[in-house]
Amino acid sequence: MLFQLTEEQQMIRQAARDFAVNECLPGVIERDELQKFPKEQIEKLADLGFMGMMVKQEYGGSGMDTISYVLAMEEISKIDASVSVCVSVNNSLVCYGLQEYGSEEQKKKYLTPLAQGKKNGELYIGAFLLSEPEAGSDATSQRTTAEDKGDHYLLNGTKNWITNGNSASVYLVIAQTDPGKGSRGINAFIVEKSWPGVAVGAKENKLGIRGSDTHSILFNDVKVPKENRIGEDGFGFKFAMKTLAGGRIGIASQALGIAAGAYELALAYSKQRKAFGTEIMNHQIIQFKLADMATRIEAARLLCLKAAWEKDQHLDYTLSSSMAKVFASETAMWTATEAVQIHGGYGFVKEYHVERLMRDAKITQIYEGTSEVQRIVISRSILK
Predict the structure, then answer these.
(1) From CA 289, how far away is CA 276, in angstroms rounded?
(2) Range of 359's domain?
(3) What is the CATH number of the domain that holds 341?
(4) I need a labelling partner for 203 at 20 to 30 A (CA). Which of 3, 166, 193, 350 fits?
(5) pTM
């Protein structure tokens, strides 16, 4: 077992780190405050090849491995989780789903511009529409319907908590086509935002990742051509579950980055701040907090890298991705909270960044499968 990154992986990590510091850090507090979508940063990431990292080069992607993706996600998330979640959704869910399960025509038409992050010079990204007002963790309870009309489907319903909701040009929509068949009556469709009957609801006013674009999406008699269904009839639920398993590696890496970012800020602050006549790093209570942070973060990093390695080796990564997500997300929440504590009163104000990381950390325990759902996945796997 080699605990060593290749030269290429190290270069990708460094490129992501430089981008985060130079492009994401300036204005990150203001974007959070104003809930401003980081369009400029996403466009630059697209130009650098970060929006289709794992997509084959023949479809406009960068052809990188999942380990490189984990490294990039960690570095960007240390600075701005609102940028990294946009990267994660486009890479892990949208591009992966299309590359793995889309037809050749679908790949040429949609995957290529999505992997490039641009079409005709304009931002071109995707969104993954599974959650509904009545169906979050219980993904089989889909109320959104796609009625078979022969040469097309008629799509009706509402999706919510959609990352990239307003900024995306393409939606991957999970909908019920035959309620009598349960999970086997669910399909996945490629829907263009510009089609008649598609409406974007109000932007959610969120606790964290406030720069990311979270909306409800409404469908009213939207005509979806038959050729825009992904896979065979009834494949939608399986498509969603398979795609989300890979998405968990992205969110685990985001959580890892939030934790590492908070830790690095706390470590630096402990060397500068003085209390009781010496730098606070000399007090054992602070030393122990930092030691626990470093240990948990390293464990989370290894879980993320193992899940990524299994995915790259074409092994079953269902268990490892769930373990990585539940552990990294809980590490992020705990580490960010402790980082605020180490900063004291300064940690409670926006200019020191750690309070934002603490707010951003919470969502990693909720989206793309809550911590409770991850424990269900893990327990089912180990109790087979």
Answers:
(1) 18
(2) 243-382
(3) 1.20.140.10
(4) 350
(5) 0.97
Closest C-alpha among 271, 257, 278, 254 to residue 342:
271
Per-residue pLDDT of the chain (384 residues; tens, 9 = 90+): 788 999 999 999 999 999 999 999 999 999 999 999 999 999 999 999 999 999 999 999 999 999 999 999 999 999 999 999 999 999 999 999 999 999 999 999 999 999 999 999 999 999 999 999 988 888 888 999 999 999 999 999 999 999 999 999 999 999 999 999 989 999 999 999 999 999 999 999 999 999 999 999 999 999 999 999 999 999 999 999 999 999 999 999 999 999 999 999 999 999 999 999 999 999 999 999 999 999 999 999 999 999 999 999 999 999 999 999 999 999 999 999 999 999 999 999 999 999 999 999 999 999 999 999 999 999 999 998
The answer as to whether 362 is a domain residue is: yes
In the chain, the number of structural domains is 3
Residue 276 identity:
F
Domain boundary among 95, 123, 151: 123
Which residues neighbour 312 within 8 Å (Cβ) at sequence distance 6 or greater? 65, 66, 67
Residue 1 belongs to some domain of the structure: no
Q: Which of 75, 132, 310, 368 is catalytic?
A: 368
**Residue 2 covered by a domain:** no
